[in-house]
Design a protein that fits this description.
This protein is α/β, with parallel strands linked by helices. The chain has two domains: 172 residues, HUPs (Rossmann fold, 3-Layer(aba) Sandwich); 94 residues, Pantoate-beta-alanine ligase, C-terminal domain (Pantoate--beta-alanine Ligase, Chain: A,domain 2), CATH 3.30.1300.10. A six-stranded parallel sheet has the order 1-4-3-2-5-6, sandwiched between helices. It starts with a strand and ends with a strand. The mean pLDDT is 97.
Length: 284
């Protein structure tokens, strides 16, 4: 295990990044909200394959939580996170306060139109403005060459890529694969909220997505039939309540009727108060 640098201010990060850049190093960045699991660590590993020095931020961003969401109860596991990041090979953890990211007088919001009105954006209208704004701030502080985001948050990935392109931020945004539990459940910090019975039934989400992939491999191209088949599978879990289940274009997030090119089947399912998201790319 190696030493890992913990920094709290933008100035400290800027000074460290300047030293690395003067040494000719390439900077990788993995933004997180903590409560780290193997999915996050796989992003660090991917970044290490692309860059010489890796910064991981741990910041529970208040602007991406809506009213009544789990901001106050979001897991705080900083000491465990630090040990995991040391073992994973990260070089620096940026652990800022809310005031460091949003100082007095902060009055800017980044809105990516078009991509943010469907799927999660339909039910969490402030969410992606908060995500885009905090990522723009973090990119400005860290000035990374590459940043790695997980494919589980597929809409977020599309929003960040669009923002980076539109604002010419010069960051290469890479996508990390979805890391799953042995029963197929996508790893998430919110899985810890599930009761034992909810956790057992939550595997049905991945089973449903797998059913969609089977249908496509058998020649099915109709979006309604594909989605209905997935709904039937998820409905077998009595504790599951589907919030949305849609087949969309993975770049525009707009619904598709026929699967003529690769499509993103995205789903959000509630188990009690816990909202889980997952997706699969379906290739005709």
């Amino acid at each position: 295990m190696k030493d890992i640098t913990i920094l709290r201010t933008a100035e400290q990060v800027g000074n460290l990044v300047n030293r690395w850049r003067q040494a000719g190093m390439r900077i990788g960045f993995v933004p997180t909200m903590g409560a780290l699991h193997q999915g996050h660590l796989s992003l660090v590993s991917q970044a290490l394959g692309e860059a010489d020095r890796i910064i991981v931020s741990i910041f529970v961003n208040p602007t991406q939580f809506g009213q009544g969401e789990d901001l106050e109860s979001y897991p705080n596991t900083f000491d465990e996170d630090l040990m995991k990041l040391e073992e994973a090979g990260a070089h620096c953890v940026f652990f800022p306060s809310v005031a460091e990211i949003y100082p007095d007088g902060f009055s800017t919001s980044v809105h990516v139109s078009g991509l943010t009105e469907t799927l999660c954006g339909k039910y969490r209208p402030e969410h992606f403005d908060g995500v885009a704004t905090v990522c723009a701030v973090l990119f400005g502080i860290v000035r990374p060459d590459i940043a790695v985001f997980g494919r589980k948050d597929a809409q977020q990935l599309a929003v960040i890529r669009r923002m980076v392109d539109d604002l010419r931020l010069g960051v290469l945004v890479l996508a990390g694969e979805i890391i799953r539990e042995p029963d197929g459940l996508a790893m998430s910090s919110r899985n810890s909220y599930l009761s034992s019975e909810q956790r057992k039934q939550a595997a049905v989400v991945c089973i449903g997505l797998s059913r969609a992939a089977e249908l496509v491999s058998e020649g099915e191209r109709d979006a309604v039939r594909i989605c209905d088949a997935v709904r039937e599978v998820i409905a077998e879990a009595p504790l599951a309540t589907i919030q949305y289940l849609e087949l969309v274009d993975p770049d525009t997030m707009k619904p598709v009727e026929k699967l003529n090119t690769p499509g993103l089947l995205a789903v959000a399912v509630y188990f009690g108060q816990t909202r889980l998201i997952d997706n699969v790319i379906l290739k005709p």
